[in-house]
User: Fold this.
Amino acid sequence: MYNNKFFVLLLLLFCFNISVAQKKVKKERLPRRKPSFVLQAGGGASYYTAHVNTSSVAYTGTLNKWSPAGTLRLMWYPRYRLRLGLETGFTNFYRYKVTDTSGQGQVSLQAIPLLVVWSMQVLPRLNIYAGFGSYILKPISIIKALSIQETGF
Amino acid sequence: MCRSPREIYLLISISLFIALNCNAQDSAFFAKHRAIYFPYPMYKEQWRSSLGFTLLTTPQDITEEVRLRIPCGNFTVLKKISNHFTAEGRIDFQFLQNHLSAGVQYVRPVSKKFYFSAGNDIGYWFGFLKIDGFDSKGSGWLTYPSVTFGYMTRKDLLITLKVQASVNLYYQAQNGENKFSSGKKYYNGEAFTLAIEQPFYHRKHLTLAFSAISNYFYWQTWSLFYKTNRKVFYPQITVGIIL
Amino acid sequence: MPDPSGWDLFKSPAARILPGKARQAMEGVYTVGNGNNTFGDLTAIKWSYVINTNDSSFHVSGFFGKDIAYFICEGKQLDGAIIMNGYWRKMVSTETGLIRLTITAANGANILLSPLPAVTPGSIVINGVFGNGQEEPELPVSFAYNRPLHNSPAGFNILAHRSGGRNSDLLPVSENSVEMVLKTAEFGSTGIEIDVRFTKDGIPIIYHDNDLNLREVQKSGLVGPIENYTYAQLSAFVRLIHGERIPTLRQVLNTVVYQTQLSFVWLDTKYIGSLEKVQTLAQEFKQRALQQGRNVEIVIGLPGRDQINNFLSLPDYASTPSLCELSIEDVQTTNARIWAPRFTEGTQNDKVAAIHAQGRKAFAWTLDVPEFIEQFIREGDFDGILSNYPSCIAYYYYVQQ
Assistant:
C-alpha cells in the first residue's frame, strides 16, 4: 500500500495553486470613495536651483534667485491612491543688475509653470507630488543705453 | 536503472507539479503579461510581436535648429528557437531612413521574479535624401551586444533594464557622384533602456520605454553628420502595443 | 585648449621675434617622421598674423591629414635656433595637448635666419615633443621640409563656417565672434562666412540661430527671438558662450579689414527683410580695404527665394557682389559673382564649368567629411569650400602636387 503522504503532497501542491488564485481574487478591492476634483492654491518662496553664470555681465552681488511664488493646482482624486492634476502659477526665476559700458539696467526672468502633476498619499496626512511640463518664460529687461555706433548701425 | 514504484510515483508527482506549474506560469504569463522587452523564456509561445514608435530628441548643441521631431515607427517580432533561445527581428522605419536588425538572445529565469538575457543583434541602416539641394544616400552596418534584466512585480507590471552597446562595422555615404565608404570598426556607444510592460486595454499590452543613448554615430542623424567628435546623448521614448 | 605658457625657454628674455623672411621661407609641405602614427605622413605648415593695436602677432600652423589634426604655435628665435610653442588638436575627437618644436641652426635655422633664405628638400628639420592634455610633452615628433605649399594661379578660398567653426567643435572662442575672426587664419582660413541678423532697433549683428539659446549664449535671463531685443540690451546682458559680446556687422568687418589677412567675407543672410544696410556696410568696408591696399571681397549671401527678391529690390543689385545658393538661373538673374550649391549634390563639374564660362566662381558648402573634402579638391573644380574644419581643407589643398 502506498503511503498516503504522497496524496497529501499532491493535495498540498494543488492547494498551493488554488491559494494563489484565491489570493489574486482577494486583491480586487472595492472603491473606497467617489472620484472627485480638488482645487488647491498655495504660496511661498521659490529658489532657482540651476546654475546661472552672469559674472561677466551682472553687477557684483546683485544676482537674486529667491522669489515669492504662487501655485494653483487642479487635482483629480480617483478611487485609487495615485492622483493626477494640472498645475500653474507664477514665480520669478532670477534677477540681477548690470552696469556696463553699453548701459545700465536690470533683468528679471518671470516664469509661469504649466505642469502635469501626480500625487500619492503615502500616509493619511502626507501626500507626495511630482510633475513635469513647461514654463512660459517672460524676460523683463530694462536698459538705459549709451550710444554705440558712430554711423547708427 | 530500476526504481521502486514509490520512487516512480514520487518522480511523476513532482514532475507533474513542475509541468503543471510551468505550463500555468507560461500560460499565465502569456495571458497576463505579454512582453517584448522583458526577458521571459518562450515556453509555449512560438511568436511574440509588437507595433509602436520611438521619439528621439536630438541635442541642440550638435543638431542646432534641425530637430528630429518625426516619430520612427517600429515593428518587433520574437521567435522561439528553444526554451532558452529567442530570435529577435526589428524594423525601425522613417521611410527616408530605416533600420533593420536581427539577433539571438539567451533567456534565463534567475528566480520567479528575476529574469536575465544576453545576446547580440546585427543592424543595417539605410537612408536617402533627394530633395532640393540634396542628392544623398547612406547606409551602414552595426552590431549590438546586450544584456537584459527583468523584474516581475506582484501585480501586472514587468520592469526591464536593457544595457546595449553598439559597434560600428561599416559606413557608406554618397553625394551626387561622390562616394565614400569606411570599414573602420569602432566602439560607437551604449544605450540604457528602462521599459515597463503592462495590460492596457481590452487585453492589449503596452510597452513604455525610456532609452538613454550615448553614441558617436546615430543612424537617424546620418544626413546631418557622419560622426561626432564626442559621444552625444540622445534621449528616446518608445511606445508599443504588443500584438 | 591646453595652456602652453609652461615652457620656460620660450619665455626667455633673449627670445626674439622671427624675421618675416624666415616665416615665409619656412612655409611648405613637410614629411612627418616621428609622430606619424598620431598625425599622418605629411603636414602643411603655414604662418598667419593678426594686427593688434600696437603690434602684430604671428602664429605657425601645421595641418595634418589624419583625424583633422593641426598644431598652432607661436615662434621665436633664440641663440641661432628657432623655437615654436603651442598646442595640437584633433577635430574628430576631443584629443589635444601641448607641442614644443625646435629648428636648430644645423637643422635649417641658419638657412631660415639668413638674409635670403633658400630652402631645399630636407634642408629644414623640425624636431620636438608633444603630449596629451596639460601634461609635460614627451612624445617625439619631427618634420622634414619636402616641397612648397601648392598654390593654384587662380587662388582658392578656404572658408570658415561661422567665422571659424561651430561651438560644438569645442574651439577656444565662440562662433560668430570678433575673437573667432582674429583666430580663424590659424585654422587655415583665407575667408569667413558669418550670419547676419537684425536687432529690434535695426542694428545688423552677427548671430546664427533665430533665438537666444544656451548653444550660443550664456544664461542671461533673456530668451526668445533675438530680434525682440535692442542692441543695447544684447550688449549689456548677453554674452556668447566664451564670454564675448554679440558683435555688430560693423565690428566684424572692421576687424577683418584692419586686423586680419582674410580676403573674403560671405554675409549669410539669416533674416528676411531689406538688404540695404548690409549692402551699405559691404560697400563701405570694401572701400576701406582698398584704402588699406587690400582686396577684400565682401558678398551678400542669398540662401532663399525671399532673400533673392529683397536683393533684386536694391538699387544697384547687379553691381553688388553676391553669392547665390540656388540654381544657375537664379545666379544669372541676380548677377551673383558666386554660385554656392550645397555639397550634397556632389562635385557637379559640368555645372561648375558652365559657371566658370560665365566668368563667375563656384563654392561648395558646408563640407566637413575629410574623405569628401579630399575628393572635392582632387576631382572637383570649385574655387572655394566652406567648412567647419578649414584646417582640413588647408591640408588637402596645400599638399597637392
